[in-house]
Design a protein that fits this description.
The complex is a heterodimer of chains A (about 400) and B (about 120). Chain A has about 400 residues and is an alpha/beta fold. Helix content of chain A is about 40%, strand content about 15%. In chain A, α1 packs across α14. The longest helix of chain A has 26 residues. In chain B, about 80% of the residues lie in helices and about 0% in strands. The N and C termini of chain B lie far apart (about 100 Å). The chains are: A alpha/beta (about 400), B mainly alpha (about 120). The interface between A and B is medium-sized, with 24 and 23 residues.
């Protein structure tokens, strides 16, 4: 079997791109030929992990070669990265790796925001029939959006695919609700250790902190659903008890989510660092340096967290929201934070526990690392991909 | 309930006169109302009613058109659905055929190699 991987790759700043790049070297051995299909940039991947890098902007033979190559699509919600993936997966059905549980923002971006509201109604009708069309017309009339809890906009992608791979049982159930006859497999995101083999203390020192600093981190895109504001409020209430504690938010802040004002209001500007987007190497240094991480997510729209996988793989005691795919993690591997009015108190309590009993939470790191080893080994993940693709064809 | 809320947005309503002029304002309003009652009201009111009936009919028509549109989208989605299914099944068959061709090519190659050796 020959496979054509279609999806974003580094240097595009995307978790999907990172995951795909990690998986490529392990996929290669399962197929006669492997090629990647990209629009108009040069991917940063080792040259020997695929046979051909096929740029869509170059004329010549068609990448699909009349069905000789089975496409493996990496589909997510980021319209800039996944528009061409969506176009191709409708035209040349293949296997789709679904990274998000709702494509509503993606569909909105490529229809309404692109000046084609009729296509939006058509998609809503494809998803929910007459009721979908009516709701979409209403939404357009009022200038509002469709209800994200009622319209996942997955149906066309799933129906167009020969098979769908998801990363959690929660998303599997959601897909089967939309298309009960779908061929579907649950396979973990692949994990390979990218962190340097250095101690936490050394990582702290390389980042300019003293070895005694207690570092709490939040990683990845800093957006409202990551609930970094809750983490900061909790940190503000406990940091007086640990004068050497600092909070660091590593990642790009989404426009309009102003945490710096909140930090100033909480009076913790001198103990909070927001370095913004950093290179992968520096990101990994921060991963190694932190004593605890806050990786909350609510509302949850069906996605898995690549950053969380790296935190668990690095053995960082981590707080997650008790929702969706995160509920599938072993209770002994993470601190699960409820998404109700207890959230702030629970974050505070968990952070206190980690900072007070750093030796006692070591078992948590071991369970987390064991879980990642067992489920996210890239050799196994690639084997599961290949087996599923064989089965579906 | 506010009296305005009893009307739909497409309904025309009779409105009273108002004046911002200090002291004489009430007098101006009274004169205008009197003149309106004598000269224009009985002419305008039936027109208002007629226009409301037209608007009401247009609203009904728009509503029916919207329902037709919803039905059209529903039909389109059913066609879409069939098209997607047919396309997927066709492509799946194509992949299978391609695999068969690959296998046959391999077999042919190995047979020719064996014959060559013999």
């Amino acid at each position: 079997m020959r496979v054509a991987c279609v999806g974003p790759l580094p240097p595009l700043r995307s978790g999907v791109a990172d995951c795909t790049a990690r998986l490529l070297p392990y996929l290669q051995s399962h197929f006669v030929s492997t090629r990647i299909i990209i629009p108009d940039y040069d991917p940063q991947i080792p040259s020997d992990v695929v046979d051909v890098i096929w740029r869509l902007d170059l004329r010549g033979r068609h990448w699909w070669e009349g069905g000789r190559y089975l496409p493996l699509y990496q589909m997510g919600n980021h319209s800039a990265f996944h528009n061409y993936v969506y176009d191709l997966l409708l035209q040349y059905p293949g296997i789709t790796v679904l990274h998000d549980g709702s494509l509503l923002p993606f569909i909105h971006a490529r229809t309404v925001e692109a000046g084609n509201p009729g296509a939006y109604v058509r998609e809503a009708a494809f998803e929910e029939g007459k009721m979908g069309a009516r709701r979409a017309l209403d939404a357009l009339h009022r200038g509002t959006a469709l209800d994200p809890d009622a319209f996942f906009m997955l149906r066309r992608v799933v129906k167009s695919s020969l098979g769908v791979i998801v990363h959690s049982q929660h998303l599997r159930y959601r897909v089967l609700e939309v298309v009960p006859e779908a061929e579907i497999a649950v396979v973990s995101l692949p994990y390979t250790r990218t962190c340097p083999g250095i101690s936490t203390e050394e990582a702290k020192q390389r980042l300019g902190y003293s070895a005694e600093t207690l570092l709490i981190g939040a990683f990845g895109y800093i957006a409202p659903q990551k609930r970094v504001d809750v983490a900061l409020r909790a940190f503000a209430q406990i940091c007086r008890d640990w004068p050497n504690a600092r909070f660091v938010g590593v990642g790009q802040e989404v426009p309009g989510y102003d945490l710096r004002t909140l930090v100033a209001e909480l009076g913790i500007a001198d103990v909070v660092d927001m370095p913004g987007y950093v290179s992968r190497e520096v990101f990994d240094l921060y991963l190694m340096a932190v004593d605890a991480a806050v990786n909350l997510r609510y509302p949850w729209s069906g996605e898995n967290s690549d950053t969380l996988l790296h935190l668990l793989g690095a053995g960082v005691p981590t707080l997650v929201s008790d929702v969706g795919a995160f509920q599938e993690l072993p209770d002994e591997a993470v601190f699960k934070i409820p998404i109700d009015e207890q959230e702030l108190d629970c974050v505070k309590q968990a952070l206190r526990e980690i900072l007070q009993k750093r030796e006692d939470v070591r078992h948590l790191s071991e369970v987390a690392q064991g879980f990642v080893r067992e489920t996210a080994d890239p050799v196994m993940v690639a084997r599961q991909y290949a087996a599923f693709m064989q089965r579906v064809i | 309930m506010d009296s305005k809320e009893q009307f739909e947005w497409w309904q025309l309503q009779e409105s009273g006169f108002r004046s911002q002029v200090p002291l004489l304002g009430r007098l101006i309003v009274a004169v205008r109302t009197l003149w309106n009652n004598v000269a224009t009201r009985w002419y305008v009111l039936p027109l208002l009613q007629q226009q409301n009936e037209i608007n009401h009919r247009l609203m009904k028509e728009l509503h029916l058109l919207r329902e037709d549109l919803v039905l059209a989208f529903e039909c389109l989605s059913e066609l879409d659905d069939d098209l997607v299914d047919v396309h997927r099944v066709q492509i799946k068959s194509l992949y299978r055929l391609r695999q068969d061709v690959d296998r046959l090519e391999e077999q042919l190659k190995s047979t020719l190699t064996k014959e060559g050796e013999a």
